[in-house]
Write a structure and sequence with these properties.
alpha+beta, Pseudouridine synthase, 3 domains, 6 helices, 4-stranded antiparallel sheet
């Protein structure tokens, strides 16, 4: 049993936020799982993650044993775009989750990687071997994987130092007036719809998205997008905040689309090879379903 007491300075904090601050040795997802299981009590009553602390509560946490989980190898198709002794670059298809989570443990990119390559970097833990960064489930394109711990730390430092350059292709609704632009609104979790992020609050994590118009169509615009930060849903949130949600992205206000996914593709990534020190650029061709969708669009009137 872990016993805590909320202080006056904690007033206004969510319960899960307070626990994450006080118990950094446990992941936030694990703490939230304990809350859902009724293992966290405030003054003797089960608490909710969204409960706003008043600053005088007695909190009791009954930890449960962590489940021993490992990525299970699965024979799934993989398109390898680049490979050396330290790094693998994969063209991830839309619909494939990068790693297990939220009840999904099969069909992931990690499962396919473990089957194909065996041992990968262990820095991210047994469920995320080799994973240095992520792409949303419905985003296709290039993603980097570390083959060993040294390469993982090197790449992670490059991402943190914004030395990794990423270019995306995004088809957005409407006519984007400017030929190029930059969006710098901070991004935070949407306080009402927790599955979304938002750029409409004055607070949040710093984020920078630059775009350039590539082609114009009737009712939509194809953009080349570069990001200087890697926030959750960053491109989708920023473009939607500018009034141009990504085509098919209903979560952020786009109309329903026959595409069956949203039109966002990780087209290119540039990084420095951990072993050679040489700059490497990897391109992922546009996913076939996206190319077919583009080909069917009409030119602007």
């Amino acid at each position: 049993m872990i016993q805590l007491e909320a202080a006056a300075a904690d007033a206004g904090k969510r319960l899960d936020q307070l626990l994450a601050e006080r118990l950094p040795e446990y992941s936030r997802s694990r703490l939230q799982e304990w809350i859902k299981q009724g293992r966290v009590q405030l003054n003797g009553l089960a608490g909710k993650a969204s409960y706003l602390v008043k600053g005088s509560e007695r909190i009791e946490v009954q930890p449960s044993e962590a489940r021993s989980l490992r990525a299970v190898p699965e024979d799934l198709p993989l398109e390898i775009l680049y490979e050396d002794k330290d790094v693998i670059a994969v063209n991830k298809p839309a619909g494939m989750v990068v790693h297990a989570g939220a009840g999904r443990h099969t069909g992931t990119l990690v499962n396919a990687l473990v089957h194909r390559f065996g041992k990968l970097s262990g820095v991210g833990g047994d469920m995320r071997p080799g994973i240095v960064h992520r792409l949303d489930r419905e985003t296709s394109g290039v993603i980097l994987v570390a083959r060993n711990d040294a390469a993982h730390r090197n790449l992670a430092a490059q991402f943190a130092g914004r030395e990794v350059k990423k270019i995306y292709l995004a088809l957005v609704q409407g006519k984007v007036k400017a030929e190029a632009g930059r969006i710098t609104s901070p991004i935070a979790r949407d306080p009402v719809r927790r599955t979304r992020m938002t750029a409409k609050l004055a607070r949040g994590r710093a984020a920078m998205t630059e775009y350039q118009v590539l082609r114009r169509f009737e009712g939509c615009t194809l953009l080349e997008v570069r990001i200087g930060t890697g926030r959750t849903h960053q491109i989708r949130v920023h473009l939607a905040s500018a009034g141009h949600p990504v085509v098919g992205d209903k979560l952020y206000g786009a109309a329903a689309s026959p595409l069956g996914r949203f039109f966002l593709h990780a087209h290119e990534i540039s990084f420095t090879s951990p072993s050679s020190g040489q700059r490497v650029t990897v391109d992922a061709p546009l996913a076939p379903e996206l190319q077919q969708f583009l080909d069917a669009l009409k030119p602007p009137r």
